[in-house]
Amino acid sequence: MFQHINNVDNAFKHVRLFTIVVIVTYTALLAYVIFSCLQKVDRANERIYIVANGQAISAEASTRKENIPVEARDHVKVFHSFFFTLSPDQRAIDATIAKAMELADGSAKAAFDDLKEKGYYVSVISGNVSQEVICDSVSVSTSQYPYHFRYYGRQRVIRTSAIITRSLVTEGYLRTVDRTDTNPHGFLVEKWATLVNSDLEIEKR
After folding, report:
1. Where are the transmembrane segments (predicted)?
2. What is the pLDDT of residues 153-168, one digit of tens each?
3. Is residue 203 within 8 Å of 160, Cβ to Cβ?
């Protein structure tokens, strides 16, 4: 009788131990499955698809911190392109300058007002002068905020009688702002100043 009771008790203990092992195993397996699914979802969210010419192209999303140097350099290039690209047309000048002003603070407006007061834009229109800027390089230091940059480029001033190539070196700082349609990089040029703007070559036409 007592032997039978002991056997039942042992069997119950074995069943209980087996049940605990099964529950722990399934719990661990379920946790692993959930963790794996969450990782896959995160990886899927980092992958985006861009439709170009009717084809879906896969691309990897990245954080803003990873892209700061690239976006900062491009922002500086775009700003200088808008500010220094001129046509002998008042509407064209107003349009490109307005775009440049969206990317910079009052220091750019002060530079524009100074050139305007000196009659620079009037001479561009009256002399049928075209002007373009070629970027050689942009250095951006992200070790300290706001980010200091220096722009190295060349201006090509195309007149009816000659093409003048000028060296252009400027510097300033970049502050982060909200991204907009007119400022997609989300930077603002601050304390912008021209360091060098001198003739390199004059080519007669």
Report:
1. 17-38
2. 999 999 999 999 999 9
3. no
